[in-house]
Amino acid sequence: MNSRNYTSGFGLTGGIDYTYFRNKEEQSFRSIENNGQETTFLSNTAQYINRWKVYVDQNHTLSNAWVLNYGTSFTYVNNHNSQRYNLAAMSGMNKESRVDEYTYNLYTGFEKNFGSQWSLNASASIEYYQMISYKKWAIYPTLNLSYVLSPSHILQFELSSNKTYPDYWTLSGSTSYLNNYQESAGNSSLKPYTDYSAALTYILKSKYIFQFSYDYIKDYFMQMIYLDSSRLKAVYNYQNWDYSKEFAFTSVIPFKTGEWWDSQLMICLSSLHQQASNYYDAPFDRRIWNIAGNWTNTFTLSKRPNIKIEISATGTSKSIQGSYTIAPAAFIHTAIRYTFAGDKAMIQIKGNDLFNGSNHLTTKVRNGNQYLDMYLNNYMRNVTVSFSYKFGGFKKKEVKDVDLSRFKH
Questions:
Q1: Residue 71 and residue 195: Cα distance in Å, rounded?
Q2: What is the distance between the alpha carbons of residues 312 and 304, in angstroms, rounded to a whole number?
Q3: Mean pLDDT, to the nearest integer, of 270-299?
Q4: Contact between 243 and 217 (Cβ < 8 Å)
Q5: Is-cis flag, bond preceding 166, omega within 30?
Q6: Is the peptide bond before 305 cis (omega within 30 degrees of 0)?
Q7: Share of the chain above pLDDT 70, in %
Q8: Among 269, 270, 274, CA closest to 286
Q9: Would you say 46 and 194 are in contact if contact means Cβ atoms under 8 Å apart?
Q10: How far apart are CA 181 and CA 185, in angstroms?
Q11: First to last CA, the chain
C-alpha cells in the first residue's frame, strides 16, 4: 500500500491511497467414491486488485463552541478474478471476471456542547455506489446525544448506520470444491447490506450500564449451507436475505469484595427475527428469544508477591442464524498470573475451555426439504505458559492498517 497525506494549519486534510493486491492458489483435487470411480483435477485461481482512494476533509471550530466538519471521498477498485480447470470436461466451469467498482461519498457533521449537561454529535453521509449493473444512492446518518443529570446518572442515545460489502471473490461467482460432496459457490448478484442501529444507554455511578438497542439489517447476507435439490451436493453460499432484526436489553454489573475479588457480569436478552423469502426452494421466516452472558472474576491471592487468578465463564442459550438452529453452549477459561520486577515481567499459565464445551457445538437445519445436522469436533481445550517483559521507553510504532477484508486470503 502507498499513501500520501497532507495536513494544513487551518483544519484541511487530504490524501490519496493506493493498494495493489495479488493472490494465486492451486488446488489439487482427488476423490474416490464407494463404487471405485475416481475424480482428479487441478484448479488454478488468481485475484488481482488495484484500489485507489482520494479524500479531502475540512474541520472548523466556530463561535459558541460549535465544531463543523465536512468532506468528500472517491474510491475506485479494479478487480480481476480468474479460475481455470485442467480438464476439458470442466472447461465450462472456467471463470474470468473483471469488475470496476465506484464509490462516491459526501458527508457533513457538527459537534456541540450545551453547558455541562448536554452534548451532541451528528453527521450524515450521502453515497453513490456502482458495480456492474448495481447502482444505488443512500444516506447514512449518525447521532450521538448525551445528557449528564449528575456524575452518577448519565443518559446516552446513539443512532448509527453503515454498509457492508461482499468480498470480491464471492462476486466472481466461482466454485471451489471442499470434497466430492461439499462445494463453495460464489454469487455475482450479491448486494451490499445496510445496518441501521439505535441504542439508549443509562450509566449509573460510572460503572453500572443498562442498554436497550435495536438493529435492522436490510439485505443481510452470511455464508450458509444449502442441500441442492437437483443433485447430491451440499453448497456453501451467500444469498441476500430480506432482513435481520434484533431487539436487545444488555446490562453490565461490576462488583468488588474488598481488595481480593473483582468481578463483572454481562447479560444480554435479545429477540431475533430473520427472514429470506427468496432463498432457493427453502425460504425462512424465523424468530427466537436468546439469552447470553459473560462473567469474569479476578482474585488477588497475594499483593507481594503479585499473584492473581482469573476465571471467566461465557454461555448462550439456543439461537438461530438464518435456517440454522444452534444449540446452547458454554465455555470456562482460567489463568494464573505472577507479576514481578516492578510490574514489568509476567509469567502466566492459562487454561482455555476447561470442560471442552466447544466440542459439543451442534447446528441443525429443519427447513422445507432441508434436513441437516452438523456436529463440530472442535477441540479448543488447551493449557499455555507464557512469559512477557516490558522494556522501559518502548513505544510500538503506529502503522496504518490496510483493509484486506474483501480480498481473497
A1: 22
A2: 24
A3: 96
A4: yes
A5: no
A6: yes
A7: 97
A8: 274
A9: no
A10: 13
A11: 16
Q: Strands of 319-321's sheet, edge to edge? A: 319-321, 324-326, 361-367, 370-376
Q: Is 151 helix (H, G, I), strand (E, B) or coil?
A: coil
* b/e burial code for range 147-175 (CB count within 10 A of at least 16 → b): ebeeeeebebebeebebebbbbbbbbbbb
| Matching residue, cell 457533521 | 109
pLDDT in tens, 186-215: 999 999 999 999 999 999 999 999 999 999
Q: Which residues contact 34 (CB under 8 A, 6 or more apart)?
A: none
Q: Which residues pair with 401 in a beta bridge?
A: none
Contact assessment for residue 234 and residue 181, using Cβ atoms and an 8 Å cutoff: yes
Angle at 251 between CA 313 and CA 145, to 5 degrees: 140
What is the arithmetic mean of pLDDT over 238-254? Answer: 97
Residue 220, Cβ density class (10 Å: 0-12 exposed, 13-18 middle, ≥19 buried): buried
C-beta pairs of 85-88 under 8 Å, 24+ apart in sequence: 85/41, 85/42, 85/43, 86/41, 86/42, 86/43, 86/44, 87/41
CB 276 within 8 A of CB 283: yes
Q: Please give the Cα distance from 50 to 79 (Å, whole number).
A: 7
> What pLDDT score does 56 carry?
95
Q: How many CB atoms lie within 10 A of CB 139?
A: 9
**What distance in Å separates the CA atoms of residue 156 and residue 159, rounded to the nearest whole number?**
10
CB 44 within 8 A of CB 24: yes
Q: Are 24 and 48 in contact (CB under 8 A)?
A: no
| pLDDT-based confidence at residue 33 (cuts at 50, 70, 90) | confident
* Bridge partner list, 295: 265, 313
Taking the C-alpha atoms of residue 396 and residue 190, their distance in angstroms, rounded to an integer, is: 40
Tens-digit pLDDT profile for residues 122-151: 999 999 999 988 899 999 999 999 999 998
pTM: 0.89
CA 95 to chain CA centroid, Å, is 29
Higher pLDDT, 91 or 169: 169
Query: Given CA atoms 338, 341, 346, 349 in this order, what sign does their dihedral have?
Result: negative
